[in-house]
Design brief:
This protein is an alpha/beta fold and 212 residues long. It is built from 8 helices and 8 strands. It has 2 domains: 136 residues, Rossmann fold (3-Layer(aba) Sandwich); 66 residues, no CATH class. The strands form 2 sheets. The chain has a 6-stranded mixed beta sheet with strand order 4-5-6-1-7-8, with helices on both faces. Strands 2-3 form a two-stranded antiparallel ribbon. A hairpin with a 2-residue loop joins strand 2 and strand 3. 37% of the residues are buried. The structure holds adenosine-5'-triphosphate and magnesium ion. Its main location: membrane.
Length: 212
């Protein structure tokens, strides 16, 4: 990732589009503190991602590209665990867990262990875990990859509502998804941000096509 410069306003959705290997996950990892930048800096709500990593973690919800779940824990246990990490009060945590699982059609799987869920169900659980406690910033790396059309629409609806409470940065390969969800779209290729703007601005500027 090289010379990436972006700014995301509070309570908006920023979609990072780009082909395989463009540098989307790498950029996300720098923001979560998983990777150290060789140079440059990034801040989340005014806090430096390297220096203030521990502080930032508390206001961050993350859905990694590849699900990181505890195979022996149920969906419900995942929700309580991550809600606890967000310092949620127990009753509120249970209510939120119930609401999120329901929005993502996982209510019937609440007590199933994550290891026994289908790929798309695991994906939705990863997203639910990222959203519990309404973290100030939510980073979602390809949250809808592997989901059927019906579940993808449910995720879109949930994210549109979540915007009131969180600032969301998500990566996707889907132009349709970016068009529908994003307040701002950034297109990455070869580690660089090639263009940024609202969907309308990009369509007006590149309506006839854009070659990465
Ligand atoms: N740990 C690493 N060390 C060195 N190079 C890496 C590492 N991880 C990824 N890369 C390289 O960095 C580039 C960007 O990878 P990245 O995972 O950020 O792409 P991406 O945009 O998320 O792609 P995808 O859509 O396939 O998820 C790739 O060329 C990849 O090979
Ligand atoms: Mg990736």
């Amino acid at each position: 990732v090289d010379q990436l410069s972006s700014q995301v306003e509070d309570n908006t959705i920023f979609c990072l589009l780009g082909h395989n290997g463009a540098g989307k996950t790498t950029s996300m990892s720098i923001m979560t503190g998983g990777l150290l930048p060789d140079s440059g800096w990034a801040t989340i709500a005014g806090q430096d991602v390297v220096r203030d990593k521990a502080k930032i973690r508390k206001s961050l919800g993350v859905c990694p590209q590849f699900d990181v779940l505890y195979s022996e824990l149920s969906c419900w246990e995942h929700m309580l665990l991550y809600g606890g990490m967000q310092a949620m009060e127990h009753q509120q945590c249970e209510e939120e867990a119930r609401r999120l699982l329901s929005c993502l059609s996982l209510s019937s799987k609440a007590h199933q262990r994550a290891g026994y869920l289908s790929g798309g169900q695991q994906r939705r659980l990863s997203l639910a875990v990222a959203l519990i406690g309404d973290p100030k910033i939510v980073l979602l790396d390809e949250p809808t990859t592997g989901l059927d059309p019906d579940n993808r629409r449910k995720v879109w609806k949930l994210l549109q509502a979540q915007k009131q409470k969180s600032t969301i940065i998500l990566t996707t390969h889907s132009m349709e998804e970016a068009d529908l969800l994003a307040d701002t779209i950034g297109v990455m290729s070869k580690g660089k941000m090639q263009v940024q703007g609202t969907s309308l601005e990009l369509k007006q500027a590149f309506g006839t096509g854009y070659i990465l």
